[in-house]
Amino acid sequence: MARPPASSFRCSECGWTTVKWAGRCGECQQWGTVVDVAEQTGIVRALKPVAPSGDRRARPIAEVEVAETPHRPSGIGEFDRVLGGGIVAGAAILLSGEPGVGKSTLLLEVAARAAAGGRRVLYVSAEESAAQVRIRAGRTGALTPELYLAAETDLATILGQVDEVSPDLLVVDSVQTVSSSLSDGLPGQPSQVREVASTLIRIAKERQLPVLIVGHVTKDGTIAGPRLLEHLVDVVCQFEGDRQTSLRFVRALKNRFGPTDEVGCFEMTGDGIAEVPDPSGLFLSRSRAAVSGTCVTVALEGRRALPVEVQALVVESKAPQPRRVVNGVDPSRVAMILAVLERRAGLRRLAEHDVYVSTVGGVRLVEPAADLAIAVAIASAVRDRAVPHELAAFGEISLAGEVRPVTAAKQRSAEASRLGYSAILDVEAGSVRAAVDRAMMASTSPRERELDAAF
Hints:
CATH class of the largest domain: Alpha Beta
Largest sheet: 9 strands, mixed
Radius of gyration: 28 Å
Organism: Agromyces agglutinans
Number of helices: 11
CATH architecture of the largest domain: 3-Layer(aba) Sandwich
Number of domains: 3
GO cellular component, one term: cytosol
Structural class: alpha/beta
Family: Belongs to the RecA family. RadA subfamily.
CATH superfamily of the largest domain: P-loop containing nucleotide triphosphate hydrolases
Helix content: 25-40%
Shape: elongated
Domain RecA family profile: 68-217
Binding site for ATP: 97-104
CATH topology of the largest domain: Rossmann fold
């Protein structure tokens, strides 16, 4: 007697199968993606090859016509910089970010600028009511006649709105809150997200209608839903920012129509979101007097060079384990720089002091080019000698105490010179000891002689 086929369960994210249901996939570790699928039986029919005809025939790559993909500016220069010049017709753009960072505010501003430029825009809010979006639009000055607003969570109704309005730009906020009757499950589950995103992208390609889609993120910062969502869209943008500061960054993680190393800078204000075309002074302190424990470096955000001030404070500690508190820099890099300064630069007794290192403006420095500025700031705090205002430092520090070259050194030097930093401390310093000695201002105060003798 033939054994009846047992029901199996398959992960809709990665395809992992199991004979028992599990709340979490054993392969990709995603929750809620294991669903019951009936085992297929019967004869599998082989596909018959179909002869291509007309333009579908394969041709040499040199004979393929090149079609231009013109970018149409959105009205926001920083957003256009990230997209590669503007929004392309038929493009599907996914904007992700943490809750409350300002995704809806940014896209409402993009929709208002596009509508003010003569394009008809349909803004679909699946998270907020129409009245809530109307209040925000009135506060930010986004009330334009060509901007249409709909509060819908059903995909079929959204498609009906598209047929009725015939927009030139569609904004959906967000894809995790829209559901389709063609797919089972609650909104936000992988099957629903896949169905909704596939339908919106198909409409975008068929009608040459650009679509801006908002996507939620998980606790670890990745885009929620199946990874297929990122593969389907043309552009993936990430909206970053710290709730303690008003500065926001937009980065392109994927872009089929432009570069992926551009960064757009914005600032959240009471009237909405504003562009920051030149954020050079956002990460510098306003003090005119020379203060010890500070040094300016030039960091790269995409292709943009930004001056960032690093501050350090060194205090004698009585505790058996001195504190190492950092903000905006990598703690392991700071620990390594402290060891190099004590061993290679002659700054003794650092193990007996509390060390605090921070950046101005809440910016985070993750590249090794900031090593030299951190070392100079710590040495300045230890010796209580101020670094000149016109000095900027960038370079990677090795364990041997050498200053190594960094990428885009000419661009960093040019940006520092443009902002008035006439003294550049970089790889030409040779060693970290020589760099620290060059950065310190000459002084003969008794306090500094006492500190030099102690360290």
